[in-house]
Write a structure and sequence with these properties.
The chain is an alpha+beta fold. The chain is 38% helix and 28% strand. Among the domains are: 3-111, N Utilization Substance Protein A, Chain:P, domain 4 (2-Layer Sandwich); 118-180, Nucleic acid-binding proteins (OB fold (Dihydrolipoamide Acetyltransferase, E2P)); 321-414, no CATH class. The protein has helices at 3-19, 23-39, 83-111, 182-192, 194-197, 227-232, 237-245, 260-267, 294-298, 303-312, 321-332, 361-366, 371-376, 379-389, 408-414; strands spanning 47-52, 59-66, 72-77, 118-126, 130-134, 139-143, 158-169, 172-178, 201-209, 213-220, 250-255, 273-279, 284-289, 315-320, 339-344, 347-352, 359-360, 391-392. The strands form 5 sheets. A 5-stranded mixed β-barrel has the order 4-5-6-8-7. Strands 12-13-14-18 form a 4-stranded mixed β-sheet. A hairpin with a 2-residue loop joins strand 15 and strand 16. 29% of the residues are buried.
Amino acid sequence: MSSTNFDLLEALQQIAVEKGIAIDTLFDALANALVAAYKRLPQAAEEAVVTIDPDSGEIRVYGQELDEEGNVTREWDDTPDDFGRIAAQAARQVILQRIREAERDRKYEEYAGREGDIVTGIIQQSDNRYTLLDLGKVEALLPQAEQVPYERYDHGARLKAYIVEVRKTSKGPQIVVSRSHPGLIKRLFELEVPEISNGVVEIKACAREPGHRTKIAVWSNDANVDPVGACVGARGARVRMVTTELRGEKVDIVPFSDDPAEFVSRALQPAKVKEVLLDEDRGRATVIVHDYQLSLAIGKEGQNARLAARLTGWHIDIKSESEAAAEETHYAEGEWAEGEWVEQSGEMVWKPAEGGETLSAEAWAAGETTEAEAQAGTTEVAVVEVAVEIVAEPAETDDLLSPPGAEPDAAAEEGPVP
């Protein structure tokens, strides 16, 4: 074996160890590069193969003749003199390219399929478009859309993020991460709460307003384990670690329930709920709370009610005791009960017996007053306006009011719904 072959073999083995690339992959890359170098030589055969002895590093070139079907009909040794030196010069760039490709593939395979995992990186660069995180061997991209509003990303600081996508590009894997995804909350609790990581406690639902507040519903598969206590930890140590990583974002932990009414009641914590009335056909929950609990149930700018609606999947309409009582009195007096259904412009509308403007079916069912009554400033109008303000829904909708408080049969006696 020539010293050139020995040096080349030793270099390949060293590269394989340092880069973590299989030696066979490098041999294949070198063989392909040597075929290309051989064909550039004068009087080279049209078809050729190159063999490399993995033990000695000996390189041989075999010219070939093929028939019309591509079968080898003749093969001979056509290794040029001093081909080792020529091959080393010609193959250098090709081998380096194959090494880079192999490294990119290896890095991609390391992160492919890891969407939903949590990673820790060091902030390298941050601007108005994105922030780069150094994960060690690769970099992760934190786009502005996945960032938490007003959260600062200082250079050199350590940051945990949630992997939302892994892309394969010509420059290597591109890992897109998020700080605003609800999945980040679940993964952080898995890191801090052993009962979640081993499956004893489950996070059934999560609703989040990044940077402000999060609600999670937890469930225990073991009657002896309190799911809320497990997540909170001794003196709040576990949940404190999560909120610290989230840079002060508040986290409410509520017990999950299979009973929708009970789940809605728990989701509105810390407010105390007096009663929950469900309309399963419309997916709405009317919640009655004590007057002094109304603002707490709604939360600042409706945040508590909004998160509860997202957590449970129910449209939530919150009313105080006095509002509910006034509404019941309103219907009991029959102010919308007397009248008849008539057709107007192709639609059925409710015409009050005492005259006045007609009401659409939706307005009648919701108990809305006429425009004339609104201008008169009746008590009932104020009740309706307050109810509109405190509606919390998991999805956009135009129908913001709950069903009437009167019994459907009683209302039907006066006038059937169209």
